[in-house]
Amino acid sequence: MTRHSSKNPCKFPPGTIITGKWHRQQYVLLKELGTGANGTVYLVKGRQGHAALKMSPDSVTITSEANVLKAFAKVQGSVLGPSLIEVDDWAIKGHTIPFYVMEYIEGPDLLSFIKVKGPSWAGIMMIQLLDDLDKLHEKGWIFGDLKPENLIVAGPPPRIRCIDVGGTTMEGRAIKEFTEFFDRGYWGMGTRKAEPSYDLFAAAMVMINMHYPARFAKNGSGYRQLTDCIEAKSGLVPYGNVLAKALKGEYSSARNMRTDMMAVLNAPARTESRQKRRSAKRHAPAPLPVHSRSTGKRQGKKSGSFFETSAIVLLTAILYAAYMYGYLL
Question: What is the pTM of this model?
Answer without folding.
Answer: 0.78
